[in-house]
Amino acid sequence: MSVPKDEGQGNGAAPRWRRRKDARPDEIVEAALEVFARRGFAAARLEDVAARAGISKGTLYLYFPNKEELFKAAVRTAIVPGIAAGERLAADPATPSLEVLRSIVGGIAARMMTSPAGVIPKLMIAEAGNFPELARFYFDEVIRRGFALLSSVLEHGIARGEFRPVPVAATVRLVIAPVLLMAVWRTSFEAVEGKPQDVDGIVAAHLDAMGRSLAPDGAERRPASGGAARTRAGGDPP
User: Fold this and answer.
1) Burial level of 114, CB count in 10 A (0-12/13-18/19+)?
2) CATH code for the structural domain at 9-73
3) Is the Cα dihedral 201, 174, 116, 106 positive or negative?
4) Domain extents for the chain?
5) 3-state class (DSSP) for residue 229
6) Residues 219, 225, 228, 234: is their CA dihedral positive or negative?
7) Distance between CA atoms of 110 and 197, rounded to whole angstroms?
8) Would 227 disulfide with which of 63, 129, 207, 236, CB 3.0-4.6 Å?
9) CATH tag, 79-233
10) Long-range contacts (CB closer than 8 Å, 24 or more residues apart) made by 194-202
11) 206-231 b/e with 16+ CB inside 10 Å = b?
12) Count of CB atoms within 10 A of residue 143's CB?
């Protein structure tokens, strides 16, 4: 099968997709996130993604058959590995549950605020009703799995006496809500407000409140330490 020509082949330089074939899917995904952020999922065109990636539309189709599969690849590339990292961290019985929770929340915040992944929550909120298949995909691969991870950390902490008994299902939503708000704010209102969010400050305040509210009854409720530093350092952020 002949391979479609890439844009810019006429200048004698080796086509970009030939020079970096292994990296091409990741570059297409990154371009797609930028186009989705600017136009939304419904209005985004594969032609725009291809142009942003510096390839022809035909070359894009060699990797992704349609826009839906491209979006799924973006989610699996930008978000799912972070959940897997959190699962590995939670599997270590030697790490205190609050430290696990801090690392997961700080890592998610870092990823949402410093990478193209931050646009995905806003896209799903805006487009879920119009694209139920994508909503189901996102629910199964991100929301359900992420909620299960946070639930396991809370349940483990309660069982070990590190946390007071709390309603786990409701608390999971409270744990993740500020991070989602920051992600939506970044792409919706940050430019209107005219200044960047104080991500470190918001995360530190949230981790402090979370540590105090989860402390066992009767325990001294000290401020959570290291929240902002953990967010900046990132480590292997979920």
Assistant:
1) middle
2) 1.10.10.60
3) positive
4) 9-73, 79-233
5) helix
6) negative
7) 12
8) 207
9) 1.10.357
10) 197/113, 199/109, 199/113, 199/231, 200/227, 200/228, 200/231, 200/232, 201/228, 202/109, 202/178
11) bbbebbeebbeeeeeeeebeebbebb
12) 13
Q: In a 3-state reduction of DSSP, which class is residue 19?
A: helix
Query: Are 86 and 238 spatial neighbours (Cβ–Cβ below 8 Å)?
Result: yes
Q: Beta-strand (E) ranges in 121-230?
A: none
- Check residues 23 and 41 and name the one with the higher pLDDT: 41
CA 182/CA 179 separation, integer angstroms: 5
Q: Which pLDDT tens digit goes with each residue over 188-234?
A: 899 999 999 999 999 999 999 999 999 998 665 555 444 443 443 33
Is 113:199 a contact under the CB 8 Å cutoff?
yes
Tokens found for residue 109: 């915040």
Q: Tokens in use for 53?
A: 């990636």
Q: 42-74 pLDDT, tens per residue?
A: 999 999 999 999 999 999 999 999 999 999 999
Q: How far apart are CA 103 and CA 82, in angstroms?
A: 11
Decide if 28 contacts 60 (C-beta within 8 A): yes
56 with 50: CB under 8 angstroms?
Answer: yes
| Two tokens, residue 104 | 């997961």
Measured between its terminal Cα atoms, the distance across the chain in Å is 40
